[in-house]
Design brief:
The N and C termini lie far apart (about 65 Å). The protein has 10 helices and 2 strands, in the order H-H-H-H-H-H-E-E-H-H-H-H. With about 290 residues, the protein is an all-alpha fold.
């Protein structure tokens, strides 16, 4: 490009910039009250509202996950015999978790559950794991989905928004019921995670000298594994992934029972837990390779 062509190009560029309207002039020409702008404003408000609700549900789910894990750690403090004080404390923690689930139920009033399911599903799965673990310690049985949902029915006694009186001042608010229904997928995923806690319970019970609990746990885990095997690859992808972890937990418990049955009399009771831990560490790489 020669000098004259370069000067002509810059001149044409400057002329085009001068002829373009300024940004302020463009904004002044926009009719804010037009139907199109009003529609976009409504969309903006709706999207912001949904985003804020989603973030609140994520925070509630995070709090539920933390408290559920603390409840599970608390329950692991018990030996083979249930401790009344520990069970009472765990029940208080679960009551606090249910209050947070009640807040989720309030957030979902009039909303599609599955629009926000990803926001709170981790916390619900952890809650299912915690309450099922507590139920197994007390009853030595599996807590059903119906029993879990029955505990998630709440009475809403709060006042109408903006009112200063008590709930008795507004009879229409009395008898209002909030409920949260755990989905079948969240229940299955929570039960699959429960098997890992039962495997740890097996190792802890052996360390405490209890050689009967591992065999009961082994039989219980086999029933759960059989139930998941009926689902197979026909269920959701997350369930099929949990099936591999469930199989690992069952294998470790079966190995512990085998060691107790064959070599239990040879190994001192206070060393059995260490033997199981070392054997589990040796089993895992082989399972991953297979």
């Amino acid at each position: 490009m020669n000098r004259k062509e370069g000067e002509g190009f810059r001149k044409r560029k400057q002329d085009s910039l001068l002829t373009q309207p300024k940004k302020d002039e463009k904004d002044n020409n926009i009719n804010i009250s037009s139907p199109v702008m009003m529609a976009f404003k409504a969309f903006q408000v709706e999207l912001d509202t949904k985003h804020d609700k989603y973030e609140r549900l994520v925070k509630l789910s995070r709090d539920i996950t933390i408290e559920s894990k603390r409840t599970i750690f608390l329950l692991h403090r018990m030996t083979s015999v249930p401790d009344a004080e520990v069970l009472k404390e765990s029940e208080c923690k679960l009551d606090g978790i249910r209050l947070k689930i009640k807040q989720i139920a309030k957030e979902l009033i009039g909303e599609d559950l599955y629009q926000y399911h990803r926001a709170f599903t981790p916390g619900i799965q952890e809650y299912v794991e915690a309450i099922s673990f507590q139920h197994f310690i007390k009853e030595r049985s599996l807590l059903s989905l119906q029993e879990i949902n029955q505990r998630l029915i709440f009475a809403d006694n709060e006042n109408i928004e903006g009112s200063q009186g008590t709930s008795t001042d507004h009879p229409e608010q009395q008898g209002r019921v909030l409920f949260f229904q755990v989905t079948a997928i969240d229940y299955l995923l929570g039960i699959a995670d429960l098997t890992g806690e039962l495997m740890r319970m097996c190792i802890n019970s052996v360390g405490n000298g209890d050689i009967e609990t591992p065999f009961k746990l082994c039989q219980f885990l086999r029933h759960i594994y059989d139930g998941f095997s009926y689902i197979g690859n026909t269920g959701p992808y997350e369930v099929s992934k949990k099936l591999y972890t469930l199989k690992q937990s069952l294998g470790k418990v079966e190995d512990a029972c085998y060691t107790l049955k064959v070599r239990g009399s040879e190994i001192p009771k206070h060393m059995l837990a260490d033997v199981f831990t070392s054997r589990a560490a040796m089993i895992e790489p082989d399972e991953v390779m297979s």
